[in-house]
Amino acid sequence: MFSILKKEITSYLSSLVAYVTIGVFLFGLGLFLWVIPSSSILDYGYAGLDSLFNIAPYLFMFLIPAITMRSMAEERREGTLELLFTRPLTDWQIVIGKYLACVTLVLFALLPTLVYYYSVYLLGTPQGNIDTGGVIGSYIGLFLLGAAFCAIGLFASTISKNQIIAFTIAAFLCFFFYSGFDYLGQLNSLQNLSLENLGIMQHYTSVSRGVLDTRDLYYYIALSGLFIGLTLFVLIRQKQKSLRGNDAFYCGMILGVLIALGVISNISFTRFDFTKEKRFTISPISRNLMDSLKGPVRIVVYLKGDNFSSPMKRLQNATRDMLSDLQAYSHDKLQFEFVDPIAYIKALPDSDQKAAYDSLRARGIAGEPHSVKNDNGVTQMLIFPEALVVFEGRQIAVNLLQSRIGLSDDDVYNNSIQNLEYAFSSAIKKVTSGGKPIIAFTEGHHELTDLQLNDAMKSLSDGYEVGRLDLKTAPLSILMKVKLLVIPKPDKKFSELGKFKIDQYIMRGGRVLWALDQVNAELDSMRGHGGEQMSFPKALELDDQLFTYGVRINYDLIADMNCAQIPLSTGTVGGQAQIQMLPWLYYPIFMPVSKHPIVKNLDGIRSEFASTIDTLAIKNVTKTVLLSSSPLNKKLSAPHIISLQAVEQEPQQKEFENPTKIVAVLLEGRFKSDFLNRPVPDSLHEQVTPIPESKPTKMIVISDGDILKNDVGTDGSPYPLGYDHYMGQYFGNKNLLLNIADYMTDDSGLIALRTKEVKIRLLDRPRVRSEKLFWQLVNNIVPLALLLIFAIFQHYIRKRKYAH
Fold first, then answer.
1. Three-class SS state of 747
2. Distances in whole angstroms, Cα of residue 281 to Cα of each of 413, 421, 423, 541
């Protein structure tokens, strides 16, 4: 077998055709990867070789048939195959020897492409910022693909004496097994057969990312083994004899190994993630969720279209990768598809297009403008960065693009990619769970109204049962059915009965979100009272209770230079009032800096008249700061006169250079009861045994209830939570509330997936722009030069060997 291997390699590398074939392959690859803009690594902007592993399969469809076409066909045409049969070699040794020779030649053709890796390594920012492990894993996938194509090409060479015919058959079979099953699977009559699983593309797409799944490995072994077996069978039949004992044994052994591997791969599988950050490794939480799916889940992704920018393409590919990874653990219960909503809507009659847009918007699929840079400048296009998760008639929209104020486009898309596993797993869990957890907003203390909480309650209703609860009338037994109790900006003091119920709810493991204003201050009141208002402390009577739990909300206000703007009249011109947007220091925007999953990568949080929070050292209670002011802040103790005229004065930065102030804190642990050694309130009309210390539980305290409030238009219609209709800008308030709800109601740790880190790997763009031609020449000329040097050296060695 090794003599056959050596003979084939020497024979091939001694011919000019070999070097021309490999040279054309490298030249074509160089053009696609470094010159043609649509697939150029330089234009893509990321330090990776994704384009190489996307384009190489199609070039392999011509390179590998060119390598394999002479393996058997030339032997038969020249009559040397019969001579080969007279040697002390078995049929399978001849086939395997020729097959391994073809695989070795494919590896030889790939060696010069390492120049591409080194170029990207040098162009990364910082230098060397390339995922070497991921590249190695992707090369393994390309090798497995080449091995499968070699088996197909060898079979084609066996069934024909003509090399051109063998090349044509091999190229067709390679294309069919790579893409053909995907095209067949798109036919309406065959869509339910999952034919794409029989094709190479489905398995190569997974492996080419740098992730080796044992099921994909088995597929390549089975496909290669199938065509090697067919080659052996045809070879024996051409000799016009039946299978000999040894040949029958080896054919049976190959068939038995393939069947055994198939059974094992269906029973259990494992995956090897070669990427540096293990970015394609699904967490045990998500795996258990996929494994326990009760029925088919369908996901429709609307992030599809033409002319996407590089970051958008990266998000699109990452979404497909994530869904493929989740699907791998779902026992085929998770199915997904990508849909182009623009193409679908444009195909409708004009009269139906608006209704189609409205239908998408009603399901949470709202388009947004997206800027795309091209040779003619910047063009605007409408994109739909959302997906819809559907299960048994229930559906939840998933936002794939997590914007954030002050971040570059690359950082925004990278954060969005990091959030994909949590976004999909959370949505799947909500839509498939039988009973929804209950979230109750308190009422009876002049809390925010239903209209002011409209979007908060509506947004939560996709995954939770949401309603209002009056602590005066609701017995503790009913309160205990609530998974999360939200206290949204009360204005009236709490009775001892209400405080007792909250306390014993916490002692029994209940979770509470306190969103409290300690100071009475409202912008609307100022507008109606000459532009001034005296801010004064509220009397909520909750200080002692919060103090017992380990936190204190102070009677003050935060003025912050990082703030929202409000419209104010700055005079009149021609009898018309002039309205100007001016910064209002009492509407701070809190930029999350904590890595806690509740606030990680959230956009800025808009607030109104927030106070400072102090934390206290309480045994068995851990505290995590979620939100804090910017370093440019000032504390104003109440009572204090607030005047709209303050906007006319430029704030002195020196006065605002102070330590950051806490405005939201998470408390977790065992809390002491505020009613320890205190009598039960007389107004309690139910039998309750006070518990002195809580079960392990958690609560969140926010020093501004307006964070949960949506604005209301002049016509009485509510705006989305977090949307500032004056500034025309969305803030992260809604996502903050949804993350809080997930964290407080779910003990599986699902929200911890938001801490997943995916490192962004960029090319040095200034260097790419200034040296673009140089790197294009290097990566097109150097691989060909290396091939030429080897050809000259090999010819010299051969000439010297046979000169005498």
1. coil
2. 19, 10, 16, 49
Task: Give the whole-angstrom CA distance, residue 565 versus residue 567.
Answer: 7
DSSP secondary structure, 338-402, as one string: E--HHHHHHTS-HHHHHHHHHHHHHTT---EEEEEEETTEEEEEEE--EEEEEETTEEEEEE---
Of the ranges 97-101, 210-214, 515-519, 582-586, which is most confident? Answer: 515-519
- The pTM score is 0.70
The dihedral region occupied by 697, where left means phi > 0, alpha psi between -120 and 50, and beta the remainder, is beta
What are the start-end ranges of the E strands in 400-456? 438-443
76-81 contacts at long range (C-beta below 8 A, 24 or more positions apart): 76/161, 76/238, 77/161, 77/162, 77/163
Distance CA 6, CA 791 (A): 17
The secondary structure of residue 751, as a DSSP letter, is G
Integer Cα distance of 420 and 316 in angstroms: 11
Which tokens sit at 341? 């909503």
Q: Where are the beta strands (DSSP E) in 474-620?
A: 484-488, 511-515, 519-520, 532-537, 551-553, 556-560, 563-573, 576-590, 605-606, 613-615
Say if strands 662-669 and 621-628 run parallel, antiparallel, or are unpaired. Answer: antiparallel
User: Is residue 451 helix, strand or coil?
Assistant: coil
CA pair distance 616, 548, nearest whole angstrom: 9
Q: Where are the beta strands (DSSP E) in 200-314?
A: 211-213, 271-273, 297-301
Q: State pLDDT tens for residues 714-748.
A: 888 999 899 888 888 889 899 899 999 989 998 77
Extract long-range pairs of 541-544: CB within 8 Å, 24+ residues apart.
541/493, 541/494, 541/499, 542/494, 542/499, 542/514, 542/516, 544/674
Q: Do the Cβ atoms of 488 and 708 come closer than 8 Å?
A: yes
Spatial distance between the Cα atoms of 178 and 145, rounded to a whole number of angstroms: 9
* Residues sharing a CB contact under 8 Å with residue 656, sequence separation 6 or more, in sequence order: 559, 560, 561, 632, 633, 634
pLDDT at 374 over 60: no
Sign of the CA dihedral running 91, 166, 21, 39: negative
pLDDT in tens, 19-43: 899 999 999 999 999 998 888 888 8
Which burial class, exposed, middle or buried, applies to 670 when counting CB atoms under 10 A from its CB (0-12, 13-18, 19+)? middle
Whether omega for the bond prior to residue 126 falls within 30 degrees of 0, making it cis, is: yes
In angstroms, the Cα distances linking 535 to 538, 586, 649, 735 are 9, 12, 20, 30
Bridge-based pairing of strands 297-301 and 386-391 is: antiparallel
Following DSSP, what letter does each residue of 88-115 receive, concatenated?
S--HHHHHHHHHHHHHHHHHHHHGGGHH
Mean pLDDT, range 228-252, rounded to an integer: 69
pLDDT at 247 over 60: no
pLDDT above 70: percentage of residues in the chain: 89
Angle at 175 between CA 141 and CA 330, to 5 degrees: 50
Of the spans 508-512, 574-578, 721-725, which averages the highest pLDDT? 508-512
Question: Do the beta carbons of residue 517 and residue 612 sit within 8 Å?
Answer: no
CB atoms within 10 A of CB 778: 19
CB-CB contact of 740 with 598 (8 Å): yes
Strand partners, 613: 553
Phi, psi of 106 (to 5 degrees): -65, -40
Strands (E) located in 561-696:
563-573, 576-590, 605-606, 613-615, 621-628, 633-637, 640-643, 662-669
Residues with Cβ < 8 Å from 450, sequence gap 6 or more?
457, 468
Instruction: Label the pairing between strands 576-590 and 662-669.
Output: unpaired
- Rounded Cα gap, residues 519 and 553, in angstroms: 10
- Quick check: 34 and 780 in contact, CB under 8 A? yes
Whether residue 571 has pLDDT greater than 70: no
